[in-house]
Amino acid sequence: MKYRHLKYPLIAAAVLVLMVSSVVALYKKQTDTVENTFTAAVSAVPMIEEKFSGSLKENVCIRIADNGYPVYIRCAVVVGWKDTDGDLHSEIPMQNEDYLLEIGDDWTLRADGFYYYQAPMQAGKTTPLIVTCKPLTEPPQAGCQLSVEVLSQTIQAVGSSDGEGVPAHQDGWGIVLEE
Fold first, then answer.
1. How many other CB atoms are there within 10 angstroms of residue 169's CB atom?
2. pLDDT tens across 48-95, in order?
3. What is the DSSP string of the chain?
4. Which structural domain range is residue 110 located in?
Protein backbone atom coordinates (compact mmCIF):
# COMPACT_ATOMS: atom_id res chain seq x y z
CA MET A 1 0.00 0.00 0.00
CA LYS A 2 2.86 2.30 0.22
CA TYR A 3 2.88 2.89 -3.59
CA ARG A 4 -0.75 3.90 -3.70
CA HIS A 5 0.02 7.60 -3.88
CA LEU A 6 1.98 7.01 -7.18
CA LYS A 7 -1.03 5.55 -8.99
CA TYR A 8 -2.47 8.86 -10.26
CA PRO A 9 0.79 10.48 -11.43
CA LEU A 10 1.67 7.28 -13.37
CA ILE A 11 -1.73 7.26 -15.07
CA ALA A 12 -1.35 10.97 -15.92
CA ALA A 13 2.14 10.37 -17.39
CA ALA A 14 0.85 7.43 -19.48
CA VAL A 15 -2.04 9.53 -20.83
CA LEU A 16 0.36 12.39 -21.62
CA VAL A 17 2.74 10.04 -23.52
CA LEU A 18 -0.21 8.64 -25.53
CA MET A 19 -1.45 12.13 -26.39
CA VAL A 20 1.98 13.36 -27.49
CA SER A 21 2.63 10.26 -29.61
CA SER A 22 -0.82 10.63 -31.21
CA VAL A 23 -0.12 14.28 -32.09
CA VAL A 24 3.30 13.38 -33.55
CA ALA A 25 1.79 10.52 -35.58
CA LEU A 26 -0.98 12.77 -36.89
CA TYR A 27 1.56 15.48 -37.80
CA LYS A 28 3.74 13.00 -39.68
CA LYS A 29 0.74 11.62 -41.53
CA GLN A 30 -0.50 15.05 -42.64
CA THR A 31 2.88 16.57 -43.55
CA ASP A 32 3.94 16.19 -47.18
CA THR A 33 7.42 14.90 -47.73
CA VAL A 34 9.72 17.45 -49.28
CA GLU A 35 12.73 16.09 -51.09
CA ASN A 36 15.74 18.36 -51.10
CA THR A 37 17.35 18.28 -54.51
CA PHE A 38 20.66 20.04 -54.63
CA THR A 39 22.40 19.98 -57.96
CA ALA A 40 26.05 20.78 -58.25
CA ALA A 41 26.99 23.29 -60.90
CA VAL A 42 27.86 21.65 -64.17
CA SER A 43 31.21 22.58 -65.58
CA ALA A 44 30.94 23.52 -69.20
CA VAL A 45 33.35 21.11 -70.86
CA PRO A 46 34.26 22.47 -74.28
CA MET A 47 33.60 20.31 -77.31
CA ILE A 48 35.93 20.67 -80.26
CA GLU A 49 34.24 20.49 -83.65
CA GLU A 50 36.57 20.25 -86.65
CA LYS A 51 36.25 19.88 -90.42
CA PHE A 52 38.80 18.62 -92.91
CA SER A 53 39.25 19.18 -96.62
CA GLY A 54 42.07 16.85 -97.65
CA SER A 55 45.15 17.99 -95.71
CA LEU A 56 43.48 21.30 -94.85
CA LYS A 57 42.00 21.64 -91.37
CA GLU A 58 39.41 24.39 -91.19
CA ASN A 59 36.49 25.66 -89.16
CA VAL A 60 37.69 24.26 -85.85
CA CYS A 61 35.11 25.53 -83.38
CA ILE A 62 34.84 25.39 -79.63
CA ARG A 63 31.34 24.67 -78.38
CA ILE A 64 30.08 24.85 -74.82
CA ALA A 65 27.33 22.42 -73.82
CA ASP A 66 23.81 23.75 -73.34
CA ASN A 67 23.89 23.19 -69.59
CA GLY A 68 26.34 24.77 -67.23
CA TYR A 69 27.56 28.21 -66.30
CA PRO A 70 29.57 30.83 -68.24
CA VAL A 71 33.26 30.01 -68.55
CA TYR A 72 36.50 31.45 -69.83
CA ILE A 73 38.28 29.21 -72.34
CA ARG A 74 41.89 28.80 -73.26
CA CYS A 75 43.26 26.46 -75.89
CA ALA A 76 46.67 25.17 -76.84
CA VAL A 77 47.17 24.44 -80.53
CA VAL A 78 49.86 21.78 -80.92
CA VAL A 79 51.20 21.36 -84.43
CA GLY A 80 53.61 18.60 -85.45
CA TRP A 81 54.50 16.16 -88.21
CA LYS A 82 53.10 12.63 -87.80
CA ASP A 83 54.06 9.53 -89.72
CA THR A 84 51.68 6.85 -90.98
CA ASP A 85 51.87 5.03 -87.61
CA GLY A 86 50.71 8.19 -85.79
CA ASP A 87 54.11 8.83 -84.23
CA LEU A 88 55.39 12.40 -84.01
CA HIS A 89 58.42 13.26 -86.10
CA SER A 90 61.29 14.93 -84.25
CA GLU A 91 61.32 17.96 -86.56
CA ILE A 92 58.94 20.65 -85.30
CA PRO A 93 57.13 22.63 -88.00
CA MET A 94 57.39 26.40 -87.76
CA GLN A 95 54.32 28.62 -88.10
CA ASN A 96 54.29 30.80 -91.24
CA GLU A 97 57.23 28.79 -92.65
CA ASP A 98 55.95 25.20 -92.67
CA TYR A 99 52.27 25.88 -92.10
CA LEU A 100 49.77 28.73 -92.08
CA LEU A 101 47.49 29.00 -89.05
CA GLU A 102 44.61 31.47 -89.09
CA ILE A 103 42.95 31.96 -85.71
CA GLY A 104 39.44 33.36 -85.12
CA ASP A 105 39.09 37.08 -84.36
CA ASP A 106 37.91 36.59 -80.76
CA TRP A 107 41.06 34.72 -79.65
CA THR A 108 44.34 36.17 -78.39
CA LEU A 109 47.67 34.37 -78.14
CA ARG A 110 49.42 35.09 -74.84
CA ALA A 111 53.01 34.62 -73.74
CA ASP A 112 52.16 31.30 -72.04
CA GLY A 113 51.38 29.76 -75.47
CA PHE A 114 47.60 29.55 -74.96
CA TYR A 115 44.94 31.18 -77.09
CA TYR A 116 42.39 32.89 -74.84
CA TYR A 117 38.80 33.66 -75.72
CA GLN A 118 38.46 37.21 -74.42
CA ALA A 119 34.89 37.12 -73.10
CA PRO A 120 32.97 34.68 -70.94
CA MET A 121 31.53 31.94 -73.12
CA GLN A 122 27.86 31.26 -72.40
CA ALA A 123 26.43 27.74 -72.33
CA GLY A 124 25.20 26.59 -75.73
CA LYS A 125 27.48 28.92 -77.70
CA THR A 126 30.06 28.14 -80.38
CA THR A 127 33.07 30.17 -81.48
CA PRO A 128 35.60 29.55 -84.26
CA LEU A 129 39.14 28.94 -82.98
CA ILE A 130 40.99 27.86 -86.13
CA VAL A 131 39.68 29.37 -89.34
CA THR A 132 42.19 27.41 -91.40
CA CYS A 133 45.46 25.52 -90.98
CA LYS A 134 47.33 24.32 -94.04
CA PRO A 135 50.85 23.12 -94.78
CA LEU A 136 53.13 25.47 -96.73
CA THR A 137 56.03 23.05 -97.24
CA GLU A 138 56.51 19.38 -97.89
CA PRO A 139 56.79 17.10 -94.83
CA PRO A 140 60.29 16.26 -93.61
CA GLN A 141 59.95 12.67 -94.82
CA ALA A 142 57.62 10.71 -97.07
CA GLY A 143 54.46 9.51 -95.35
CA CYS A 144 54.36 12.32 -92.81
CA GLN A 145 51.53 14.78 -92.60
CA LEU A 146 50.78 17.88 -90.59
CA SER A 147 48.97 17.14 -87.31
CA VAL A 148 47.03 19.83 -85.46
CA GLU A 149 45.77 19.00 -81.96
CA VAL A 150 43.64 21.33 -79.86
CA LEU A 151 43.73 21.06 -76.08
CA SER A 152 41.24 23.15 -74.15
CA GLN A 153 40.54 24.22 -70.59
CA THR A 154 37.74 26.18 -68.99
CA ILE A 155 37.43 28.09 -65.76
CA GLN A 156 34.33 29.67 -64.24
CA ALA A 157 33.50 33.19 -65.31
CA VAL A 158 31.12 34.00 -62.47
CA GLY A 159 32.23 34.72 -58.93
CA SER A 160 35.62 34.06 -57.45
CA SER A 161 37.51 30.98 -56.42
CA ASP A 162 39.44 32.29 -53.44
CA GLY A 163 36.76 33.88 -51.27
CA GLU A 164 38.51 37.25 -51.51
CA GLY A 165 36.90 38.46 -54.73
CA VAL A 166 39.75 37.61 -57.10
CA PRO A 167 38.17 36.32 -60.34
CA ALA A 168 38.67 32.60 -60.91
CA HIS A 169 40.60 33.05 -64.16
CA GLN A 170 43.03 35.40 -62.44
CA ASP A 171 43.42 33.13 -59.42
CA GLY A 172 43.55 29.87 -61.40
CA TRP A 173 45.43 30.92 -64.54
CA GLY A 174 47.32 33.89 -63.16
CA ILE A 175 46.11 36.27 -65.88
CA VAL A 176 43.84 39.28 -66.13
CA LEU A 177 41.42 39.20 -69.06
CA GLU A 178 39.67 42.19 -70.51
CA GLU A 179 36.03 42.15 -69.46
1. 24
2. 888 777 666 778 888 887 777 788 899 999 999 988 888 888 889 999
3. -TTGGGHHHHHHHHHHHHHHHHHHHHHHHHSPP------PPPP--EEEEEEEETTEEEEEEEEE-SSS--EEEEEEEEEEEE-TTSPBPSSPP-BTTTEEEEE-TTEEE-TTS-EEESSPBPTT-EEEEEEEEEESS--SSTT-EEEEEEEEEEEE-SSBSSSSS-BHHHHHHS-----
4. 46-173
Q: Please give the model's pTM, rounded to 2 decimal places.
A: 0.68
Residue type, 89: H
- CATH code assigned at 145: 2.60.40
Domain assignment present for residue 34? The answer is no
- Please report whether residue 7 resides in a domain: no
- Length of the chain in residues, anyone? 179
In this structure, are residues 40 and 145 in contact, taking their beta carbons and an 8 Å threshold?
no
Q: How many domains is the chain built from?
A: 1
pLDDT of 99-143, one tens digit each? 999 999 999 999 999 999 988 888 888 899 999 888 899 988 888
Would 27 be classed as within a structural domain? no
